[in-house]
């Protein structure tokens, strides 16, 4: 017995080693040759048809052929004859099959399908019904002719029903074998259907033996090894169960094989971290455990079958497993493929955005072309005016040749002086009028025509000026949009950066502190703009992010980190999603006080505070024209427009000009509003002040009070305005006081109101912004003897240095993510 076993093992090993070179050469065939063999010549369809033609269930029914023919009929009709021929050859090679009945069934199905197509019912959705009817009617006909019993009729119905189900399965699985390219991952249903198709093909190898080794067992175990390594234990066990069920239907004695395949697939998948050796060990362990039920003879037989499958498994190139893993969700290869696809998508998107940004920049340049020189433009208009005047006067005058040929220079200069004088003074008078009357025979008519043409020229120049202002405004807006899109493209490229090493460092550090982290996603590690997302269990609920996570990240990154947003992703017992960002060096607290004219309910003043980008904070006050509801609507709409434009990333001055153009062009009526805007940089406390028709702002620093003023017309009066920007450096503890003219101009009998307001603010002792706003409004109203003659609004912003509530947590053996120079260290 041992000699027989030794000879069998030696023969198997010799067979594998002798064919190793041939298999390697087959796998190394060029891609074009493989495509021609399997796609153009239909080798895959021929082999599949041959094996399915041999496949039988319980030795009587063959439900695999007609579903296969039906799917090929719809997907690869040019290979229908090849598929039919291969199935007939497969049936002819099996002693229990019936090729003649199979041929009749194929012809009957094709005829039935042609009939359905004539009735416009030839879609693939009707194919399962056609398969069911063809198999049922042919089997019943053969049973009636040969030997009719209730059992034969029942088996005919069972075969027809199985054919219908297999048609639905093959519709999803056969295209996976015939299509050359597939980008989408396999769904669970497609994966199960593919496994059923592979098991059906293995059923066609039942009875094939090589040196007392069952080929169906070798192929089934080889499939288990491949899927276990490529997809893990869950898929490996699923493939084992499905394959075992299909094979046991073909051979009832193979029921134990199902348990072996399922257990080996699960165990091999769990040991996939050990690569091929680990998966092969799982199969050997499963084989030895199941072989205990077979006795000594059965143990060695199934052991050799597993050894042959393992040898084939080791000969399979790594590329095969990588390719399979890419189409199975949940595998690292599939995740890497998805990341690569997302990276390509981000790169393409960023490139398109950059192209649009360049387009807008070129459009801005085309709109902002330099106008012609003023002297040249002036000379051109004078020449045009003189040509219009002389056409109706000098052309019909008998002294034309004397004036314009003999004295051209004198005539041209004198008429130019007349035009200049009439343009500046309206009428011609004095010595110039006397000289002109003596020089020209039609002096009065010429002066009348010059006056009329000057009016037309003024209108034309006004129109051109408006066009130039509009072009300049459009150019500024296009340039602003271009900058926004350029920044957006830069953000897209930044998100594509790979921080896997840094993410693993953060994950290890948090797990060392005892936190169970689901994932860590580093979006940006730029200085002052750090953005990290992570997920941890909701069950903690003890502010771990503020007390542990943020202090630890502050030490790893080298700058203060704070929790920006935290939200629950799942119900109780699930996980929460946390977003951590760079903590700003300064923070702003706001206090507001307002009063409507005459103690009314609705004020024409409006205020707004908004975050602009990652590190800017804006405070704005708008005062609409007049009082009441309309003034309130105008001021509120102005601030809403300002917020939307600023938060889109457009520069402050361009935003102000855009709002001014909208208000000035929106209505022919006089609708204007003052605007007071302060933009505070939360990293440096540098503040930009933009004042459009507004009152001065004040900075209270201890006992001192400074004023900030700029002189601009209210927005909405002129289509084009010059925006002056004043910058001031604020310090921690400063109070920024902004107010409308109703509060500033309340003491009407005071001459130097700015000095009076500085003294009034400096006398306030409290540093609480809300108390300062309330006290200031109260003092002004009391000083005005309780009269509120206009809408009053005051906004007080206190700038404070941000101090973290918790000190940093330092782990000395964990590398820092960034050096003091901003270089990423963990990646090295």
UniProtKB/TrEMBL annotation:
Its EC number is 3.1.3.16. GO terms for molecular function: protein serine/threonine phosphatase activity. Residues 589-799 form the PPM-type phosphatase domain. Keywords: Hydrolase, Membrane, Transmembrane, Transmembrane helix. SMART domains: PP2C_SIG, PP2Cc. Pfam families: SpoIIE, SpoIIE_N. The chain crosses the membrane at residues 43-76, 96-116, 123-145, 151-171, 191-211, 223-247, 277-295. It comes from the Bacteria. The keyword Transmembrane applies. InterPro entries: Bact_Sigma-Reg, PPM-type-like_dom_sf, PPM-type_phosphatase-like_dom, SpoII_E, SpoIIE_N. Coiled coil: none annotated. NCBIfam families: spore_II_E (TIGR02865). This is Stage II sporulation protein E.
């Amino acid at each position: 017995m041992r000699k027989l076993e030794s000879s069998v093992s030696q023969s198997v090993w010799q067979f594998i080693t002798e064919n190793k070179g041939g298999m390697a050469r087959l796998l190394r065939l060029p891609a074009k040759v493989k495509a021609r063999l399997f796609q153009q010549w239909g080798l895959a369809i021929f082999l599949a048809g041959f094996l399915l033609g041999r496949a039988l269930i319980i030795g009587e029914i063959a439900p695999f052929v007609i579903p296969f023919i039906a799917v090929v009929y719809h997907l690869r009709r040019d290979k229908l004859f090849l598929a039919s021929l291969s199935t007939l050859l497969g049936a002819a090679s099996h002693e229990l099959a019936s090729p003649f009945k199979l041929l009749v069934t194929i012809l009957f199905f094709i005829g039935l399908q042609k009939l359905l197509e004539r009735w416009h019912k030839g879609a693939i959705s009707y194919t399962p019904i056609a398969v069911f009817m063809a198999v049922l009617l042919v089997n019943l006909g053969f049973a009636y002719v040969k030997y009719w019993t209730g059992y034969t009729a029942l088996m005919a119905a069972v075969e027809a029903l199985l054919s219908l189900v297999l048609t639905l399965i093959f519709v999803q699985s056969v295209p996976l074998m015939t299509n050359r390219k597939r980008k989408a991952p396999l769904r669970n249903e497609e994966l199960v259907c593919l496994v059923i198709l592979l098991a059906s093909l293995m059923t066609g190898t039942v009875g094939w033996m090589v040196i007392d080794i069952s080929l169906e067992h070798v192929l089934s175990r080889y499939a288990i090894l491949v899927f276990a390594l490529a997809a893990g234990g869950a898929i490996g066990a699923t493939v084992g169960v499905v394959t075992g069920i299909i094979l046991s239907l073909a051979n009832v004695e193979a029921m134990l094989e199902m348990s072996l395949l399922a257990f080996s697939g699960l165990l091999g998948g769990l040991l996939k971290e050990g690569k091929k050796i680990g998966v092969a060990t799982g199969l050997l362990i499963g084989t030895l455990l199941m072989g205990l039920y077979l006795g000594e003879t059965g143990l060695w037989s199934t052991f050799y079958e597993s050894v042959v499958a393992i040898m084939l498994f080791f000969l399979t190139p790594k590329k095969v497993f990588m390719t399979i893993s890419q189409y199975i969700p949940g595998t690292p290869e599939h995740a890497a493929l998805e990341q690569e696809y997302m990276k390509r998508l981000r790169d393409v998107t960023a490139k398109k955005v950059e192209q649009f940004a360049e387009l807008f920049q070129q459009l801005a340049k085309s709109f902002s072309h330099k106008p012609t020189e003023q002297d040249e433009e002036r000379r051109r208009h004078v020449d045009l005016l003189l040509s219009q005047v002389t056409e109706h006067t000098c052309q019909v005058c008998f002294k034309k040749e004397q004036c314009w040929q003999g004295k051209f220079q004198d005539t041209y200069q004198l008429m130019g002086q007349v035009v200049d004088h009439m343009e500046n003074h309206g009428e011609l008078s004095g010595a110039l009028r006397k000289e002109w009357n003596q020089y020209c025979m039609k002096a009065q008519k010429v002066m009348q025509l010059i006056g009329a043409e000057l009016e037309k020229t003024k209108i034309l120049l006004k129109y051109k000026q408006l066009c130039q202002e509009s072009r300049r405004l459009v150019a500024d807006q296009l340039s602003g949009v271009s900058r926004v899109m350029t920044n957006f493209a830069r953000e897209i490229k930044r998100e594509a950066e790979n921080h896997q090493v840094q993410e693993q460092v953060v994950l290890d550090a948090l797990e060392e502190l005892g936190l169970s982290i689901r994932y860590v996603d580093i979006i940006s590690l730029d200085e002052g703009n750090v953005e990290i997302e992570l997920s941890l269990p909701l069950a903690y609920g003890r502010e771990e992010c503020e007390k542990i996570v943020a202090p630890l990240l502050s030490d790893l990154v080298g700058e203060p980190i704070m929790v920006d947003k935290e939200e629950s992703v799942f119900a109780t017992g699930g996980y929460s999603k946390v977003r951590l960002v760079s903590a700003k060096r300064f923070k702003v607290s706001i206090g507001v006080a307002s009063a409507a004219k005459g103690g009314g309910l609705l004020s024409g003043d409006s205020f707004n505070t908004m975050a602009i980008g990652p590190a800017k904070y804006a405070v704005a006050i708008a005062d609409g024209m007049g009082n009441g509801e309309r003034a309130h609507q105008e001021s509120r709409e102005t601030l809403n427009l300002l917020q939307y434009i600023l938060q889109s990333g457009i520069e402050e001055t361009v935003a102000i000009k855009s709002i001014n153009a909208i208000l000035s062009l929106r209505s022919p009526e006089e609708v204007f509003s003052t605007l007071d805007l302060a933009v505070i940089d939360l990293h440096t406390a540098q503040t930009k002040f933009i004042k459009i028709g507004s009152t001065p702002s004040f900075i209270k620093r201890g006992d001192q009070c400074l004023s900030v003023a700029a002189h601009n017309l209210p927005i909405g009066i002129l289509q084009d305005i010059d925006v002056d920007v004043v910058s001031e450096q604020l310090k921690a503890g400063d109070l920024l006081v902004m107010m409308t003219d109703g509060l500033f101009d309340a003491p009407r009998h005071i001459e130097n109101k700015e000095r009076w307001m500085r003294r009034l603010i400096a006398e306030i002792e409290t540093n609480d912004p809300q108390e300062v706003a309330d006290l200031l409004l109260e003092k002004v109203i009391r000083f005005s003897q309780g009269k509120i003659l206009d809408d009053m609004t005051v906004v007080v912003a206190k700038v404070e240095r941000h101090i973290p509530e918790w000190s940093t947590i330092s782990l000395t053996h964990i590398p820092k993510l960034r050096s003091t120079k901003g270089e990423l260290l963990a990646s090295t």
